[in-house]
Amino acid sequence: MKRSAFSLHATRMAVLSLAVGSLAGCESLNDWFASDRVNYKDTASAPPLVVPQDLTAAPSDQRFVAPLPTVALGNEPKRTVTSAGNATLGQPSAQDPLGMHIERDGDRRWLVVDGRTPDDVWPILQEFWQQNGFSLTTDSAATGIMTTDWAENRANIPDDWFRRTIGRVIDFAYSSGTRDRFRTLVTRGPDGQTDISITHSAMEEVLTGQDKTMSRWVERPRDPALEAAFLSKLMQKFGLTDGQSKQLLTDAHQSTAIAQIDGGSATLDLPESFDRAWLRVGLALDRTNFTVDNRDREKGIYYVRYADSMQELKGDGLLGKLFYNPAKAKKQTGPEFLVTVRPKTDTLTQVAVLDQNGQVTTSSDAQRIVSALNAQLN
Question: May I ask which residue range the UniProt record assigns to the signal sequence (predicted)?
């Protein structure tokens, strides 16, 4: 379903004839779509405001003066002006003149915001995803987990005649056949900073059957470039320019710790401190088929379950939205597992899977989780 949705959604055919007659009166949708590769929202421009001629001008006193850009609004902390002239959310230092930097582990990146707590950045992250066209299905400041709903990247749809005609009136008649979801993990760092990671999940609808009239959703690989694009957008939300954010992505600090798996006891040893291991295990879990439902940093435990993305996407589409039960689907995803991260020394951390009694288990499920983590961490 890369181009036309006719072969997959026959129910839409009945309304197309009603749309064709009204095409002449519609304005172009060229302004509805972003020119870059990320566009999850379709927003038309509102009509210009008309000010009545007899409107009395408001008095020019301090009640009607907008605050300076460095003054905090609501729960947002006061921003600091950098030597480059940015009003940045982070606190600049000699090491980080822009108040933030990117760290990297292979193709995995995360943003480190200096001098800010998760509580400081949480409201801004909520606003960030909403401004980019997403609704949130998980919004838990207590656990630092934020997950968007599945959404379609409209930038993937080619700008051909079909989109410029039928798609102008009936948006759902034209689809990219792909869905994306993003998970944000927000973690308190050891030195008063906040670590923010963005993980991409993707599904694609493919044609099946001899006559190609049926379809099903299949998983697509995560896109590290798309994750980096949203990290860049987030840094701009925090006060950097487009050029500065891309430069920080290029100059990312590289991690070199290698995990060692113990097949006999189904555990994993990471040669780094607990703070660093806790962050990397969370990132690794986010890139497997196991979803983090909850986490307790004080106890060093991630609560995870197997995520069936295809089951979740049954709610996508006309009939799915009528009959899909998200609560029931979540119950069908399988049992919950406890992944523990515990320091053995100041520079060595053990990762294991616990059973219901809180003991390290060597079950086949535990070995599968540890193997998946080992693949991601290396």
Answer: 1-24
